Amino acid sequence: MQPPQVSIIMNCYNGEKFLHEALDSVISQSFQDWEIIFWDNASTDSTEKIVESFNSKKIRYFKSESNTPLGLARNEAIKKATGKYVAFLDCDDMYLPEKLAQQVKLMDDSGFKLTYGAALIIDELGREVRKYKVENKSGYLFDSLLKKYEINMQTVMLERALLIENDLDFEPTLKYSPDYNLFMQVAAVTECGVISDYLVKYRVGLAGSLSKKTLHLVADESCFTLDAISEKYPQVRARFEEDFEAAYIKLDYYRAISFINENKYVNAQKVLCPIAIKSPKYAVLYFLVLCKIPRTLLLRLLRR
Asked: Which of 43, 99, 134, 249 is the most exposed place for a label (fewest CB within 10 A)?
């Protein structure tokens, strides 16, 4: 039997609330040559029953014996994939109908090893709250992504052989940004394709969301990735030295946001003060912190 063109990796832990919608969004794709690798990360809710209710041979269900970090869970799921391309979908998000078709065509026609696109941001009720547009054009994007990372995980499709040939996977020790770590390594070695159309609906504002709980990890994990790329690809580091230095400076901006989230405004002031002259964005945040803008309002302005 011929393997499918696309393997869709769905990692899930107690995702029953929106799971049916997520699976329906794959079932209704205009492009139908796919399989779902559904990795149940030891859920205790009705996740398994919902998956079984679809009764589809194209959905390959696996259940972990214990709950593991997301990066490790994604690596285990990818090992089960058979498609030429790998895509990703979390259980509270949805694909738009032409998502797979657009990316497969672009990758087949161009030879891009990774593609991504724009996303519609929705709330818990599925209402659109804003549009997440992409600014880059297809090509070698590492330096652009270093300055402003714009890859939404759910929009990504990449060539599975690229991961195997370059010994690339999700770093299992990272809790906040295993996707950033992997995709920046991919961008360091190859051109990427960018689709300006909206490819997914990405849900935000979930109570107890991982991103809220792990804001304190952003700076350290981003630093981990910058250090790893510097060591693994010294020629890339040398080529974009100024951009790397700016990226390292930005880590203090992330640290300040973490301090704001913890209501530690004095700490935020201390890390922002030395970098305030480096960027208008840093200067504005420093001013807002000095003015003691309420934490909830400030985080909302920062879209955190």
From this structure: 249
Residue 1 placed within a domain:
no
Position 162: which residue type? Answer: L
Residues 159 and 31 in one domain: yes
Is 89 in contact with 19 (CB distance < 8 Å)? no
136 three-class SS:
coil
**What is the C-alpha separation between 82 and 79, in angstroms, rounded?**
8
Q: Do the domain assignments include residue 91?
A: yes
Q: For the segment 52-107, what is each residue's pLDDT rounded down to a tens digit?
A: 999 999 999 999 999 998 899 999 999 999 999 999 999 999 999 999 999 999 99
Q: Where are the alpha helices (DSSP H) in the chain?
A: 16-27, 47-53, 70-79, 99-110, 142-147, 160-165, 178-189, 210-213, 218-232, 234-239, 241-261, 265-272, 280-290, 295-301
2 CB burial (10 A radius; 0-12, 13-18, 19+) = exposed
Domain containing 76 equals 6-205
Give the C-alpha separation, 191 to 93, whole Å: 27
Distances (CA, A) of 216 to 20, 101, 181, 212, 250: 32, 37, 17, 9, 14
Answer yes or no: is pLDDT of 1 > 60. Answer: yes
- The answer to whether 12 touches 38, Cβ cutoff 8 Å, is yes
pTM of the model: 0.93
Question: Would you state the pLDDT for residue 277?
Answer: 96
Mean pLDDT of the region 239-268: 96
Q: Mean of the per-residue pLDDT values for the chain?
A: 95
What pLDDT score does 39 carry?
Answer: 98
